[in-house]
From TrEMBL:
It comes from Siphonobacter curvatus. This is DinB family protein. InterPro entries: DinB-like, DinB/YfiT-like. Residues 27-157 form the DinB-like domain. Signal peptide: none annotated.
Length: 166
């Protein structure tokens, strides 16, 4: 019965600070929904853009890339050349399968959860710069945005997949 409940209704996650539970719950919920949504999705439709919207492939790449970038900023680190190259390639069709892209997202969620578990809550209000312009945010702001942004793109992915399934 517990697995039928949304993640946030299953109780606290071990070793995750109380203030970061909602972020972790949202990331785990997104992972479960993406796995269910894409389980039977055909690779041949991965890069299709019905009515000009972003492709499922873009959303899967973007979900992974944004989490990586936001958690890098939360650590007060600059993006690497590899991260910038990944950003530039988001949305470009490639030979990866749905399974490959979902697995990359799952691995990124695992890394994000690990970072959340090791976050000192005393740092949550510390300022962090975002992007090349170093726009001001905080550690907590980056984490909350990662959850919100993930759920937003999950919704867009859901609609796009449903459009393609027709």
């Amino acid at each position: 019965m517990a697995e039928l409940r949304e993640v946030w209704l299953r109780g606290p996650l071990p070793e995750t600070p109380d203030l970061l539970q909602p972020v972790a719950h949202a990331l785990l919920q997104a992972r479960e929904e993406i796995q269910a949504l894409t389980a039977q999705f055909p690779n041949v439709r991965l890069w299709e853009r019905p009515s000009g919207v972003a492709s499922p492939g873009f959303h899967l790449q973007h979900l992974t890339g944004v989490l990586d970038r936001l958690y890098t900023y939360a650590r007060s680190e600059a993006l690497t050349e590899a991260q910038l190259a990944y950003l530039a390639a988001e949305g470009l069709p490639n030979e990866q399968s749905v399974t490959d892209l979902v697995e990359q997202f799952n691995q990124q969620v695992d890394r994000a959860l690990e970072q959340l578990r090791h976050t000192d809550v005393q740092t949550l209000t510390e300022t962090r710069g975002v992007g090349r312009a170093q726009l001001p945010s905080t550690v907590l702001g980056l984490y909350v945005h990662s959850a919100e942004h993930t759920m937003r793109h999950l919704g867009q992915l859901l609609v796009t997949v449903r459009m393609l399934e027709g």
